[in-house]
Amino acid sequence: MAFPTSKPPGRAALSNVAGRFERQGREAVDDGWNLVEDRPMLRTEVTDERPRRIITRNTSPDISFDRSINPYRGCEHGCIYCFARPTHAYLGLSPGLDFETRLVARPDAPQVLEAELRRPSYRCDVIAIGTNTDAYQPIEKDRRVMRGVLDVLQRFRHPVGIVTKGSLIERDADILSEMGQAGLARVGVSVTTLQADVARKMEPRVPPPARRLRTIERLSNAGVPVRVMVSPIVPGLTDHEIDAIVSAARDAGAVAASMIPLRLPLEVSQLWQDWLAEHYPERVGRVMSKLRDMHGGKEYDAEFGKRMRGEGIWADLLQQRFSRAVRAAGLAENLPPLRCDLFEVPLAEGDQLALF
Description:
The protein is α/β, with parallel strands linked by helices. It has one domain: Alpha-Beta Horseshoe (pyruvate-formate lyase- activating enzyme), CATH 3.80.30. The protein has eleven helices and ten strands. Strands 2-3-6-7-8-9-10 form a seven-stranded mixed beta sheet, covered by helices on one side. Strands 1-5-4 form a three-stranded mixed beta sheet. The longest helix is centred in the C-terminal third of the chain and has 17 residues.
């Protein structure tokens, strides 16, 4: 095969490295013809999956929820740093370009969710959405799986916390407004940088930073509590923007802020380092040395209690800088819990009202 001389247009990953479970790898090689060839545009492919269950449970002490929903596998936003990339290996696909271009949709998610919420054994607690892949990535515009999920949660008066980078969430402001004002919903909008050029390279199919700030404003004006998520913070590349991002989000209407430093689990580490060397070669040493300092000399430490914050002087300084910026902006780092006491199973289609 001919060796391509440029990265795939509109994509972040530079390769389609085989997943860790594959027996064989793949590598582009020069075919000897010495022809300059650009990579073709990679089209997004979507297949459907029919899950028997849609609520995923976890017991991690590092996060505040024990259940989540993922309407999609893979993410067309294509953020190079996405910690969910390694999950594509479970599908026999690459955490690289496959993660951005070969997606899986779950069109039956609303119906499956309703069946799970109707089980007599179900006990209500906050469902998190967007904590793995973004439910408001571009294909949601036509698929509308997330819209269907929200319809179900609204009817059941079920609390939900959403994380997104996508401005498409504004489409669902009608549902989120009602739920937000009832204490049943809140949204976290991720803003990693205010530099449009950096964002374009790092998050190629995500709305630009200014557009995400408008999303915060529009949701806030609709009565939805919004948290700005300064995540991930990249030491040596975006950490100098902490104060500016927090202030801009406050001005847009955010009521809280949170942060997580860059994480590089499994295949993400090499994908990130290849990207960094391509776009910011002069910063490779600085960025990676700080990351290693935050993880005991390793590129990443997956141990509970450390993976989301890091440890050591750089991790502590980063947290102190962020907390100071949040206090100066008058934002909260913690919000009141969402309400679970309003949960109620509505009558199913065909059910009759009980006689009394």
